[in-house]
Amino acid sequence: MRAYGGFEGNGQTLRILTQLDKYTESNGLDPTRRLILGVLKYPASYSEVVNESAYGQLQSGSREWLFKSSGFKPPKCYLDSEADTVSFALQPFDHDDALLFRSGRKTTEPVEHRKTKYKALDTTIMDLADEISYSLHDLEDAISLRMIDKSMWMDYFSDKSHLFEACQRSSFDLTAEDVADKLFGRSYLRKECIGTLVHLMITSVTLQVQHPDFKSGMLRYKVALPAEVEALREAIFSLVEDKVIRHENVQLLEFKGQKLIVELFNVLASDPTRFLPAETCKKYREAEKADDKKNAGH
């Protein structure tokens, strides 16, 4: 897909909402500007942030699916085909706000994709909810699946007990040992503890200025956790990442998915009119005709 505008999961979400979903003939869910802005996690197009040197190369003679995934990750962006959609979403903002919102941060490495800096307020709410969920509910699942046990927890937090103490307040008075006893006790105690941690993080959320030059409140402000609560969330996520996400069995499943997707794509590309759904096949034929006309004109 690199030669055809690339592919990126968040960009595809935007495309589904605004074009592919079946609630309207050609406008997807027909979302409002605010909804579009809310799912626009990375307000830059693929061509604006891609760095071709950041991509790896397939080894000569190796199978197409046999590659190191870290060398083939696309930039975080929306797809070039959604440029008009993003312009529509940003239309109410003045030129300076829109320009600042879409500005990127400087990369420190010549082999990195460029990155965006800012998100709209609604997007930061969604993003933070996602981070809390990944940290706490993935922890709950990992304990249920016995991928994390009490000894792992105690060993990891042996020098981090201060993180719990720093978060103590009227609605949260648990120590690292208290949390361990509940998480690795009866299932109802585990759910109660996870609920307490979720409550701590949700009720700790603050509104912060992400850049004072934004005129619109929708762009000026973001939600974030206080430093001490964010430090606790990051520590919990780091444990989950180390013991679950990076676990060899999970990585093996991810690799199998990589192989399956590449092979499925090749099957579809080899004979599109045979395997694609009727409506998608119609679009393919129309694009093919348009491409033939374009080539005939040269």
Your description of this structure?
- Residues 224-290 form the Phosphohydrolase-associated domain.
- There is one protein chain.
- The protein has 298 residues and is mainly α.
- The chain folds into 3 domains: 1-118, no CATH class; 122-246, no CATH class; 254-298, no CATH class.
- Helices cover 57% and strands 4% of the residues.
- It has helices spanning 9-20, 33-39, 46-49, 83-90, 95-101, 121-144, 150-156, 162-166, 176-183, 187-204, 217-220, 227-245, 248-270, 272-275, 278-296; strands at 104-105, 115-116, 206-209, 221-224.
- The strands form 2 sheets. The protein has a two-stranded antiparallel sheet.
- The longest helix has 24 residues, at 121-144.
- The radius of gyration is 23 Å and the shape is globular.
- The protein starts with 8 loop residues before the first helix and ends with a helix.
